[in-house]
Structures are given as structure tokens and as C-alpha cells.
Design a protein that fits this description.
The chain is an alpha+beta fold and about 325 residues long. It contains eleven helices and ten strands. The longest helix is centred in the middle third of the chain and has 36 residues, at about 120-155.
């Protein structure tokens, strides 16, 4: 049975609003309700990044029973197999933990905006108003991305379940980030990074690429074709070189070849080479590997300069090409 619905007038009430009721079950009872060993439930709980509980801690609700049942169902369908279960569930946990921290901070800021109001009561009210809408929006965003990923998978002549695919991989990072950030106030630094992330994402998406992740002062992106990747990094570097544009000065490294895709991330030598090329690039320049050069060397709109082979981590004689677009 589900516990009575809370009024939401205190911290426990906010938690209960989010969980669909006040905790009334132990982990032993949750596991028994689904018919799995308690060790299975404990592993799922840990992988999702939740705090540890003892067998007799009353910390769970019917929502936890449903979640565990869904995980068991997905295992039976082969989605959460032995090879992928830990990594996939851990990725879910980390991703949603970051979202939750950000969303809670936003709601707390709104709740505290009224100096005469009760922040806890305001937080409870916002929880009831905001969370259902955010939940529906997150489902929509996920389904949209799922449709896009399925479309890319089926776009080839033959659909494949392989984790390896040819991609152009690029790193674009802010020039002199450490030295510049030291002189910035916290709010100014946040705005600066936000400008970099939002503008770079806009360019990437508008020109056929996909942002894999932002890593502080750096963005990792991929494109299906070398031409798309070359265009994207050219635009980003040009924006950074424009004194009238608030976009920060950047440099870029791009490599083309087979890439291992895993849980939304990209791995393998092609990714490593792109990272090494970025470390070699001078401010406002783009360096690419042999794979990019071979694919685009006949493009009349591009100019090339072969650089001396360089010794970098993992590669004793890495061949780099300086790439620029002809005006």
C-alpha cells in the first residue's frame, strides 16, 4: 500500500512529494516484493549513486519497488545484460544526479527570492508545480534524442549494432583559460563559460555535428563527415578571433577514423589523436590528422600546411596538418 500523501510543509514533506509518499519499506521488503535477492537491489541502489542503507532502515517507498521491478524486466529483455548493466545504470545515476543538483539549486533560488516567505513552504509549493512539468519535458527530450540516435543508426545501407563507426572527432578549447579565469569574479567566470558552451553548441548543431560533452574549458564534438567537422571548427575559431565577438579565443584539433561509441561517449585512438592535436595547436588555429587530410585534400576551399612530426603522449611521431579555409 502507498503511504498517505504528504502535505509538503517541511523537508520530509518535500521528499515525500518527490517520491510519491513517505518511506515505509526496508530494502529487504523491497527486494522481497520483487522476488530478487537483497544483494541485487543493493547493487542497483549503489550503482545509481544513492547512499547506503542498513537492512532495517525504513527508507523506501512503492516507487522503489516499481523501479526495481522495471530493472528486472529490462534485464529479462536483454537491455541490462551482464556486460552493460553496471556501466549503464551508473551513467543514469550520474547524469540524473547532476540534473537534480542543478534543478534543486534553481528552485531554491526562486524560493528564497521572497524575503518574507517561508523558504521550506515555497520549496514544497514549487516542487508540486515544477517537478511534473520538468518530468514530462525530460521525457520529451529523451524521446527526441532517442529518435535522432535511431535515425542515425538506420541511415546507412545496413543497420548495425556495432559500437564502432567512422567519425570526425574534434576538441575545441579556450586559449589561456587558467590565466584569464584567475582574474574573473565567480559570476563573470560562469557567464564566460556559459557563452562558450551555448555558442559552441549552437554552431555544432547547426552544421551537422553533435556535442559529446563539455569539459570545463573544452568541448568534445563529433560529425559524421570530415567536411562538417572542418566547417564547425573553422566557424568556432573565427568567432574566437573576432575582437567584437564575446566568444573566447580557441584552438582546435580534429581527427577522422573509427571510433568506439559507448553510453553517449566516444573512445579510441581517433579521439586520443584529436586531443593530442589540440594540445599542439596554437591559438586561433586548427590542426588535423592524416585521416582528415586524406578525406579533404582535394577540396579547393581548403589550404594545408604539413607540420613536422611531433612527439606527444602515446605517439612518438604524430603527423599534424594545419588547416585553414581560403577566403
Amino acid at each position: 500500500m502507498a503511504p498517505d500523501q504528504p502535505t509538503g510543509q517541511d523537508g520530509d514533506g518535500v521528499e515525500a512529494l518527490l517520491l510519491g509518499g513517505r518511506p515505509g519499506l526496508t530494502r529487504v521488503e523491497v527486494a522481497a516484493a520483487v522476488g530478487v535477492p537483497v544483494e541485487v537491489a543493493q547493487e542497483l541502489w549503489r550503482l545509481l549513486g544513492f547512499p547506503a542503507t542498513a537492512d532495517d532502515d525504513v527508507a523506501f517507498t512503492e516507487a522503489d519497488v516499481e523501479a526495481l521491478q522495471l530493472a528486472v524486466d529490462l534485464t529479462g529483455l536483454g537491455i541490462l545484460d551482464d556486460d552493460s548493466r553496471s556501466a549503464l545504470v551508473r551513467t543514469w545515476g550520474r547524469s540524473f544526479a547532476r540534473l537534480a543538483e542543478w534543478q534543486t539549486t534553481l528552485m531554491a533560488r526562486v524560493a528564497a527570492a521572497d524575503p518574507d516567505g517561508d523558504p521550506t513552504a515555497q520549496m514544497a509549493m514549487l516542487t508540486g508545480e515544477v517537478v511534473p512539468r520538468v518530468e514530462r519535458l525530460q521525457s520529451y527530450v529523451w524521446r527526441r534524442h532517442l529518435a535522432g540516435a535511431a535515425g542515425r543508426l538506420l541511415a546507412g545501407a545496413e543497420a548495425t549494432a556495432s559500437d564502432t563507426t567512422p567519425l570526425a572527432v574534434a576538441f575545441v578549447d579556450i586559449v589561456g583559460f587558467t590565466s584569464q579565469s584567475r582574474s574573473m569574479a565567480d559570476e563573470e567566470l560562469v557567464r564566460w563559460i556559459e557563452t562558450f558552451e551555448s555558442r559552441s553548441t549552437e554552431v555544432v548543431l547547426d552544421h551537422g555535428g553533435r556535442v559529446i560533452k563539455n569539459i570545463g574549458d573544452e568541448v568534445l564534438l563529433v560529425a559524421d563527415t570530415p567536411a562538417d567537422a572542418a566547417r564547425i571548427v573553422h566557424l568556432l575559431v573565427s568567432m574566437g578571433a573576432d575582437d567584437e565577438d564575446p566568444f573566447p579565443a580557441v584552438r582546435a584539433g580534429v581527427a577522422y577514423g573509427d571510433v568506439v561509441t559507448r553510453l553517449g561517449d566516444v573512445l579510441g585512438p581517433t579521439v586520443n589523436i584529436a586531443a593530442r592535436l589540440t594540445s599542439l595547436a596554437r591559438p586561433g588555429t586548427v590542426l588535423v590528422d592524416d585521416g582528415m587530410h586524406e578525406a579533404l585534400e582535394d577540396d579547393p576551399g581548403l589550404a594545408w600546411r604539413r607540420l613536422p612530426r611531433a612527439s606527444v603522449k602515446g605517439y612518438s611521431r604524430l603527423q599534424a596538418w594545419a588547416l585553414r579555409h581560403r577566403t
